[in-house]
Design goal:
Protein name: peptidylprolyl isomerase
CATH class of the largest domain: Mainly Beta
CATH superfamily of the largest domain: Cyclophilin-like
Pfam family, one: Pro_isomerase
GO biological process, one term: photosystem II stabilization
Helix content: 25-40%
Keywords: Isomerase, Rotamase, Thylakoid
Distance between the termini: 33 Å
InterPro entries: Cyclophilin-like_dom_sf (IPR029000), Cyclophilin-type_PPIase_dom (IPR002130), CYP38_PsbQ-like (IPR048563), E_coli_cyclophilin_A-like (IPR044665), PsbQ-like_dom_sf (IPR023222)
Number of domains: 2
Shape: globular
Oligomer: single chain
């Protein structure tokens, strides 16, 4: 599967398989909609969803008939859809106490779905459980801090302790509206504590890519986009983007390098179709970033790290390797997932064009979609991602700039 770089205004984002497969995909989508809708079983309906997704990615999709209501299909687990939670899980650490606190606090989101004040009981239990673990197993948490990050970790333990005390008071006051805000704050300290446990870099980048711009850690960016037309009129949105170099150092490094160069500043949104928001195609004939040292387009290799693997796979998609059923550490589970665009039949052809996924559950089902392992994810919008729905072709990226983590960018002027 490949995501093609686009000229401005093109509707297609890429293709699945070879060019000869395009009519076949279209045929599958058409045939899937024929016949008695009521007689379809869940597997048939899942096939329809995949075929429809393929057709949308191909740019060949058009409504064939009014689709039947979607049926729920059981999956093996409940995949994480929150970008910040995905990034916490992606950290290369193994500390059970802090992971238990993370699990308890993240579980509050599910509790809040219970109507009225009944949800506050599970919330209170989660807060008390987190306080108990933090008190009883504080030493076990501290011993896992990297020596150079210990002060940062200890400061965040203090902040988490205070936040949990305040959280308890919020629950006792039955202030349900304040719960999500305090949950987010507490989890931000948990994430900082977990990051303080990362000792060095978890693997060695292959020699052939070691001289590229690399992000050896995480970086937080601020992206400001001016939208000419939204339902509320012209607006300017500011979003927070986190790049994950722990799991995609080459991919994140190239993007971070372009951000440091101001490459995206003033660039327009070049595709916004309800499926993805895409940008990065520079003016002129080149479809990527032209390195001034070589006067050639600088490419970035395909890179994906699979859960359980010690390091990323380079150059080959999971489809190439027959590993399509395995889950990447950085999946397309969240609205605002950031990944590289590339030429249709060339895995290592990405350069500067990127896309943000506007996650549509029927076309890109969490944990079982056509994108995971076939496109190189390297970050997520963690704040302000809902604004993506208002982006239109021609809207302008005023700037993308570093908030923190720039020191993790290596081999960049």
């Amino acid at each position: 599967m490949a995501l093609a770089n686009l000229s401005r205004g093109q509707a297609s984002v890429g293709a699945i398989g070879t060019r000869k497969a395009v009519p076949a995909v279209r045929r599958v989508a058409c045939q899937a909609y024929k016949g008695d809708e009521e007689a379809r079983n869940p597997l048939q309906k899942a096939a329809i969803g995949l075929a429809t997704a393929a057709a949308v990615v191909l740019g060949t999709f058009a409504p064939l008939v009014t689709p039947a209501p979607a049926d729920a299909i059981l999956v093996a687990s409940d995949p994480v859809k929150n970008a910040a939670a995905i990034l916490r899980n992606a950290l290369p650490i193994d500390n059970k106490p802090i992971r238990q606190i993370q699990k308890d606090l993240e579980g509050i989101s599910e509790a809040l779905r219970i109507p009225g004040s009944k949800s506050l009981g599970p919330v209170a239990r989660a807060v008390r459980a987190s306080q108990d673990v933090l008190t009883r197993q504080k030493d076990a948490i501290i011993k896992d801090f990297a020596p150079e990050k210990k002060a940062f970790g200890l400061a965040n333990i203090d902040k988490l302790t205070e936040a949990l005390t305040e959280f308890q008071a919020i629950v006792e006051a039955k202030d349900k509206q304040a719960v999500p805000l305090k949950q987010r704050e507490a989890l931000s300290y948990v994430g900082n504590i977990e990051e303080a446990m990362v000792k060095g870099f978890p693997f060695q980048v292959p020699k052939e890519y070691a001289d590229r711009p690399l992000l050896l850690g995480r970086a937080t960016l601020e992206m400001k986009v001016k939208c000419a037309q939204t339902p509320e009129g012209p607006q300017t949105f500011t979003q927070t983007v986190v790049l994950d170099g722990y799991n995609a150092p080459v991919s994140a490094g190239q993007f971070a390098d372009l951000v440091a160069r101001g490459f995206y500043d003033g660039m327009e949104v070049q595709r916004a179709d309800g499926f993805v928001v895409q940008t990065g195609d520079p003016d002129g004939p080149a479809d990527g970033y032209v390195d001034p040292k070589t006067n050639e387009i600088r490419r970035v290799p395909f890179e994906v790290r699979v859960q359980g693997d010690k390091e990323p796979i380079y150059d080959f998609t999971l489809e190439d390797l027959g590993r399509v059923n395995e889950q990447p550490v950085l999946p397309f589970n969240a609205y605002g997932t950031l990944a590289w665009a590339r030429n249709e039949f060339e895995n290592n052809s990405a350069s500067s064009q990127v896309f943000f996924l506007l996650k549509e559950s029927e076309l890109t089902p969490t944990g079982s979609n056509l994108l995971d392992g076939r496109f190189a994810v390297f970050g997520y919008i963690t704040q302000g991602q809902d604004a993506l729905a208002d982006f239109r072709v021609g809207d302008k990226i005023e700037y993308i700039k570093f908030v923190d983590g720039k020191e993790n960018l290596k081999n960049s002027p």
